[in-house]
Structure formats: structure tokens, C-alpha cells
Design a protein that fits this description.
This protein is mainly alpha-helical. It has helices spanning 2-16, 33-46, 60-65, 91-95, 97-103, 132-135, 146-151, 171-189, 193-227; strands spanning 107-109, 117-119, 136-140, 161-166. The chain contains 9 helices and 4 strands. Helix 2 (33-46) crosses helix 8 (171-189). The protein binds heme C (HEC).
Amino acid sequence: MMRYGLFFLLFYTAIYAESLVLHEPVSVDAADQVKVLRGGAYFKSSCLSCHSLKYWRYDSLAKELGIDETVMPNWPDDSWGGHPPPDLSLIALEYGVSWLYTYLHAYYLDESRPTGFNNLAMLHTSMPNPFADIQGVNTLKRGLSIAKLRSRPKQHWYQVVDFGPHGSFSPQEFDLYVEDIVTFLSYVSDPSVVERRQLGPWVIGYGVLVISLSLYIWIVRKKDMATKPKKRK
Ligand code: HEC
């Protein structure tokens, strides 16, 4: 059942979240507690008013951040015109960190949209741009349109927008800010990464030991067989 659910989700995601740009390759280290905590604090102040994290297995990190069910929103299905802010507990697994990182960069001014903004990584998103103040406001490059972007090979989001003056963050600071949030969401969707990281060397060490022992026994037995006279049938 779970597996079908996941397939459906991936399929749904693929057709639903139309992306007009390349997804930035980004590698995040969800075992980096400093980044996870920083990202968690950003999430709490900028995202938690709309998005819940209901499936997070609440751990010491959640406690440290003061995030639990009591501070999470609970939207009726028909709120937000039928697209309420979804739960983000598993978002990093569903969409991948590259998409997430790109989505959180790729707002551009579009007055035809109810929120005044559109997003290159999720066209016609109903999420209002939370970053206009800190990132600054970008516009689609002159002469470009959604139809034109659809008809040509994908480019990076920053190749198809004109940057306005940056907001209260420099572009580098904004990149780090988004990276921290993505690192946090990556951790939330799979907190066992920390245990796995700690367990990894032991598992490999055990494997090497078992293989060496088997090899040793095999060699000894082979030698044994060679020296023993063969039994007659
Ligand atoms: C004012 C409310 C609001 C805030 C604040 C907000 N979001 Fe959203 N977000 C939404 C809504 C509404 C949607 C649904 C968009 C849609 O379905 O078109 C959404 C969708 C998303 C999605 C896509 C998920 C999906 O399955 O479609 C992601 C990822 C996301 N938000 C991340 C964030 C992050 C990270 C922050 C904080 C930096 C944030 N949001 C802040 C309202 C908000």
C-alpha cells in the first residue's frame, strides 16, 4: 500500500508541479546539527504559521526548537481555494532537495497571479512569496513568457530572470538561508540519517571482518585438502 501511495505521489508530483527551469544540484548534510537547528529556527519563524510537520518523529531537536503539534496550523481542505498549505514533513523525500532549493529561489513578479508572484519551479503556485523582503523581487527577463520557456530547453532560474535590487539579505546570505531550511526539511523527512552515519563504519567493519574470516577458512581448508591423501571410492 505504502509503495503504491509513493508511486502515486511521485506521478502526481511530476504532472502537478510544472517546473520551467533546471533544478539546482545541491547536496545538503542532514547530519550537520548546526545547520539543521538554524534551518529549523528559520522554518519556525517563516513557514510554521502556514505549514505543519505532523509526521516528524519528535526528537530532542524538535524539543530544542520548540516545535510540536500545539504550534502547528490545521487547515480545512476547502481553505485556500482548495490548495491549503500542505504538511511538509516528507517534502524533501517527495520532491528532492534540488527541487526544494530551486523552488525557494524561483519566485518572480507576475501581476496576473492572485498573490502577485509566480514560481518557475512550480508554476502557478498558490503559496505567497515569503521572501520578497529578504531576497528582493525578480522579474522574468524581457521578451520571455511562460509559453517561450516551455518551448525551449530548460535553463537555470537565474538565467531567465532580471534581478531587482536585493532585499535585506545579500544573494550569498539568501542562498545560505535557503540551504539551511532545505537541510532542516531533509532532516525532518529522514531523521535516521544521523544514526545511519554513526552506524555506517561499524557495518562496513563487520562486513570486512566476516569476509576476511571466510577467506581465511577457505584458504586453510584448501591447504588441508591438498595435503590429505584422496580417499578411494
Ligand atoms: C502564508 C502562508 C504560507 C507561508 C508563510 C509559507 N507557505 Fe509554503 N505554501 C503555502 C501554500 C498555500 C502552498 C500550496 C501551494 C499550491 O498548492 O499551489 C504552499 C506550498 C509549499 C510547498 C510545495 C509543497 C507541495 O506539496 O505542493 C513548499 C515546498 C513550501 N510551501 C515551502 C514553504 C517554506 C519552506 C516556507 C517558509 C520559508 C513556506 N512554504 C511558507 C503557503 C505558505
